Structure formats: structure tokens, C-alpha cells
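Blinded run. Sample ID left blank on purpose so nobody reads anything into the name before looking at the predicted structure. Input follows.
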Amino acid sequence: MSKLKQMTVFMYVVKLGSITKAAEQLNVSKSVVSQHLKQLESELAITLLKRTTRKQSLTPAGEHFYQQCCTMHELAEQAWQDAQQLQLTPQGLIKITAPHALMDHLVLPALHEVFHAYPDVELELISHDGRSDLMQEGIDIAIRVGESKISNLKQKRIGDFRDVLCGSLQTVEACQSDIAALKVENIRYVANHWQQKSIHHSFNRKNSRNNKSGSNSNSTPRFELNFKPHHKANTLPTCLSMLEHGFGVGIIPDFIFAKHSHTLTELLPEHQLDKVNVYALHAYQAAVPIGVTMAIEAIAKRLG
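Blinded prediction complete.
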């Protein structure tokens, strides 16, 4: 660091023509400038600048060194400007991971909307229901369902959604009598791969006063159902297709259900599951790149 500072001081002395002007430009005393020049020539073991009380002139070695100092200064200025520009215009690689259920229907449309006008942005999208190591895998943003307990990551709640228990119209009609008789074991359940062997769903009534305010109060009327998976799918599109083809009932996010309401219907139209919170996580501790900020805001807007 001291070498770079000495080279900068030397460049300003030559460029401005005097130690006094260089000191004013750098906002330091003349003695500090003189000390840097003396130390620089001592460490290089050469004379760079011949000085008298009235003028100064460069030695041949000093002229060559001055040109290199100017090049160094220009590179530093350009690096500084480039770094600032990254905070003004999104560019470069942005690596994002999200669960299968959210990537295609939420994250991807949001990213297209915000970045289609920025051709210098490169996206790498990873659909993954597990918990990736952001630092180790070089991931800029992780979109996750539920709060993370990892303390070294910054996380922000960006919205929520509800899962909808649904199936094809024919399947749901066939299940009504079993629901009325509480014979849930007769209902074929299509599970996502992340669901357990024993599946528990707790509902509240849609017209509940507490529910309208977003509260999950214990006083809210609850309706409980327990299922065992009959079929299982490792991706949301496959699970969705199985529901539409009448393999059974299962849950899908409400924003996806809304797009398939012509082929799917709710099993319990007067009840609903609790909201599920969605978080955006990143590992940036200081200034967050503008592209990362824009991506998170776009996904939050889409989710909202």
C-alpha cells in the first residue's frame, strides 16, 4: 500500500509541477509529500526528480517511472468507476436457486420481467428443494420456503402463499363422500418428494374473522386431515400433471392453482391451509450488487 501511495504522490508532483500544488491537491502537508518522495527514491535507489528552489525536472529514469505511475493511476480510476457502475446497472452472472415449486411459476417470470432490458446480465438458475451452501456453490440468491437458521446469511421475508389441496373435478367429486365420513384412508394422495410418509394438513375456515386478518389464532376453527402417500412425484410439474389426470389429490401453491382452475378444483372449498412464508437469502455483508437487489425485489413483487 505504501508503494502505491508513494507512486501517486510522485505522479501528482510531476503533473502539477511542484510539491506545494501536489500537497494542496492531496490535502496533505508539504513535508508529507517531501517525505514520500524521499522514501520512494531511497527504496528505488535512483534519482527520479531533480529539484531546485525554482524548478524541477525528471531524470530519464524518472520520466519512464512517471509514465508507469500514470498508467497505474488510470487503471485504478477505471477499476473504481467500473465498480461503481455495477451498482448503477446490473450486469454479469447472477446465480439463483429456488425450490421446484417456485422456480418456473414465480422466480423465472419475475426475472424475465426485470432483466429483459439488460442484455449484460447472465442468469444461472438452479431448481433445488434442498438447502444449498451459498458460499461454497457461489450462489447469489436462494429463495426458500420457511425461515433459515443459518446466522451468517442475510435473509428477508418477501411474501407468502398458501398450498391448495386439490384434484381433478372427477376425483374431488369421488372423494366427497369419504371426506364426509372421515374415511381419509380411502383417498389416494399424490405427494411431492419432499413430503413425509405421514402427511398432516390443518385447515381453517375461509370466512373466519381471525383468518381474514392473517392471524392463525388457536381460536380459529380447525379441520384436520391425515394422509399417507399413494403416489409420489419428484417434481412439481409431474405432481401437477398427475393431479390433472386424476391420480388423486395433493397440494400445489395457490398461484399455480389459479392458472389451472379449469382442470383442478379444491377438495375443501370452504377451508384453507395456513400461509407459508417465503424468504430471499444472500451472503453479501456489505454493499449488495444492484442485480441481486433488483432480482429479490422483482420476485417479491411477483409473489405479492
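Unblinding after everyone has recorded impressions. Confidence is low (pLDDT under 50) at residues 212-218.
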